[in-house]
Amino acid sequence: MGCAQGDKTVTNETAAATQPVEEIFNPNSKEYATNAGEQCLALAKRGRLVFYPPWMAWIMTDMSDIMDCWQQEYLSSDFYDWEFAPARPPEDQWGNFERAMIGHSLVADHDHHRLVRKVVSPAFSKNVVDEIQRRIEPDIDKLFDKLGTPERFDYIKEVAEHIPFISITRMVGLPEKYWDEIKPVIENFTEAWNPTISEARREEVRQECNRAIDIIKEVIAERRRSPREDDFLSVMLDIESKNPKFTEWDVITLILALVGAGADTTLMAQQWTVYALLKNKDQIPQALSSSEAFSNAFTEVNRWSMSSKMGFARYAPRDMQVLGQDVKKGQLILLMPHLNKYNPEEFPNPEKLDVTRKFDPDVLFGYGPRYCIGAAMAKRQLYLTMTKLFQRFPNLELDGEPERDETNHNSVSFKSLWVRTNVRA
Ligand code: HEM
Predict the structure, then answer these.
(1) 231-264 as b/e, with b when 16 or more CB fall inside 10 Å?
(2) Which residue among 284, 361, 389, 419 has its CA within the 20 to 30 Å range from the CA of 332?
(3) If you measure from the C-alpha of residue 308 to the centroid of ligand 1, how many angstroms do you get, rounded to a whole number?
(4) 420 pLDDT tier (thresholds 50, 70, 90)
């Protein structure tokens, strides 16, 4: 009997191991949108580097391998090294988009990238972040003032959607007269280098970027005429004047990188933090007790919510062996640190949101030379918004279970997030 049961287990495991990987893992499915943990764990169990045909990509599943790859940088981060990227055009045919995306700033080769990170660090110093924060706070207050005290409202439409725009325009110092034109770029820019997007859509985003870069150039010219103190762009231009290897194109590319990396992430962080806290109200006091406590709470919200779909893109710079697999030059390799976040061996009782859970290491914002440049800003801005939200609406609750949107290219999100304020209760 025991033997027969043993055989059955082996048969089931063999079946699971031979089932096509796209049948066990489909981030665009409705099931993934509501229970991603199970699919992610099944994928992680397939091996350390798994080929995923729907994306024509390898997926790196194990945290220690991912950290090693982050630290050693043995793969390329340059989108143009991807086997299906549009051909790298000759320099005399470059538009704004190519000029920004080829060889500058954070998308440059490793040596230039490290130089850029080193020289721009003053622009992310505590003083500058404090100053940006000071400029963002009245905008967030204004947003809540405009909202007033309705009985119910859609948090995404009324608050979350506005925050990335507020942060980026304030951070870079983009004057209001340019806001209408720059808004679509802030909302759509990440699609420009998402490997799973259609060519037609990529071209649309490319055109929006070309226009946005013209605007950024105008703003830079204005700022050169009248520099300000403690302003991100002015600090950048000062750095440019002192470092011959850091050019105006590095500044432009860096601004686009901030838009690319800071918009979607902020939008997702906003909606998932509100949802997670309202589903687990007992956790709110601890989560908001200090900015340090919130920082940990945010990592836990991110683990618990399992909203990531794709992870972080890298490309093989040559034919090479990676974790025992033959990887061809140009193949996409996705680092997916979220796959084990519902692994009970790593996170006991994974369904429970516990904002005091310890993370060692905490890699929510990456690791090594490409560690998130906006981490301090993202955490402060989110803490600020959450504190104001729960001060204004201490009795806030979800108004029904929000419908999830599985169609977003990068993350599981919500179609809307209706909340009830109970202000008059
Ligand atoms: C919830 C919010 C955020 C999370 C979870 C997050 C996470 C990350 C992670 C994991 C990386 C490393 C990516 C990789 O290795 O490929 C990264 C890079 C980056 N992030 Fe963030 N980020 C957030 C918000 C922001 C914001 C608000 C900004 C800008 C204002 C920003 C700017 C950047 C930039 C520029 C990089 C690239 C750094 C480089 O290549 O040297 N991020 N972020």
Answers:
(1) bbbbbbbebbeeeeebebbbbbbbbbbbbbbbbb
(2) 361
(3) 14
(4) very high
**Domains parsed from the chain with CATH numbers:** 89-314+333-420 (1.10.630.10)
Amino acid at the residue 58:
W
Task: Report the C-alpha gap between 387 and 410 in whole angstroms.
Answer: 27
Pocket test for ligand 1, best of 118, 233, 272, 372 (most atoms within 8 A of CB): 372
372 or 191: whose pLDDT is higher?
Answer: 372
Residue 195 contacts residue 92 (beta carbons within 8 Å) = no
Nearest CA to ligand 1 atom 43: 372
pLDDT digit string, tens, across residues 343-378:
999 999 999 999 999 998 899 999 999 999 889 889
Q: Do the Cβ atoms of 147 and 153 come closer than 8 Å? A: yes
Return the residue whose CA atom lies nearest to atom 3 of ligand 1: 265
| pLDDT at 297 > cutoff 80 | yes
